Amino acid sequence: MAEQFPGTVVGYDFPTADWLDPFDVDEAATQWFFVNQDRLSRSWTAPTGPDQGWGFADDEPVWETFTNPRSCLYWLEKQAVVADGQVLREWSPTGLVRERNPSGCEQHNGLYFVHSQPDRAFPIHEGPKFASYDDALAEALGRSGPRARILVAQMVDARSLW
Fold first, then answer.
1. Cα–Cα–Cα angle for 96, 97, 99, rounded to 5 degrees
2. Which pLDDT does position 4 carry in this prediction?
3. Mapped to the 3 state alphabet, what secondary structure does 46-61 carry?
4. DSSP secondary structure string, 25-90?
5. Please, what is the Cα angle at 76 between 36 and 109, to 5 degrees?
6. How do beta strands 31-36 and 72-83 pair?
7. 3-state DSSP assignment of residue 134
8. What is the H or E stretch that residue 116 is in?
9. How far, in Å, CA of 135 to CA of 12, rounded?
10. What's the CA dihedral at 60, 66, 67, 73 to 10 degrees?
């Protein structure tokens, strides 16, 4: 389990076991995390085999943690972390991106997002989105400074909690 980095704003203490700070760069395995109501969860190591679900333990309280019935639960995959104009680490994508549904929570599947370590909100719906990893990485590198890490992530899927 990783210690939370100074300045990381995590809105959900989920998962409760075997979690990582979303801005961790020490773990070599690809990681996933959730965003719900513009708040970030902790991250966890993505499963490597087929049909392993989300990759966290079956007894994790996912539906007890994310309970707002008028929201979407977004599932993202960490692609890179940058700071001070340099890439600190990139991860190999799992390639597990679900089909986009333009009229549902899944409308952002496959798109890339950039999030700064001290930001309190991670606005999926209203925030900027990028069609390619290269565009998102260029944005992150342009925004990065010496005091905060910037995360680049791809939307894997989303689920309506309605």
1. 135
2. 44
3. CCCCCCCCCCCCCCCC
4. -S--S-EEEEEETTEEEEEEEPP-STT-TTSS-TTS-HHHHS--TTSEEEEEEEEEEEETTEEEEE
5. 95
6. antiparallel
7. helix
8. strand 112-116
9. 28
10. -130
Q: How many residues does the chain have?
A: 162
The whole-angstrom separation of Cα 90 and Cα 133 is 11
Q: 119 to each of 6, 10, 150, how far by Cα in Å?
A: 12, 9, 10
As averages over each run of 10 residues, the pLDDT of the chain (162 residues) reads: 60 92 95 94 86 78 89 95 95 89 91 92 90 97 85 94 84
Is the pTM higher than 0.85? The answer reads yes
Integer angstrom CA distances of residue 73 from 17, 107, 140: 20, 12, 24
Tokens for 158, please give them.
């989303």
Q: Using CA atoms, how far apart are residues 111 and 89, in angstroms rounded to an integer?
A: 20
Question: What is the CA 81 to chain-centroid distance, rounded?
Answer: 11
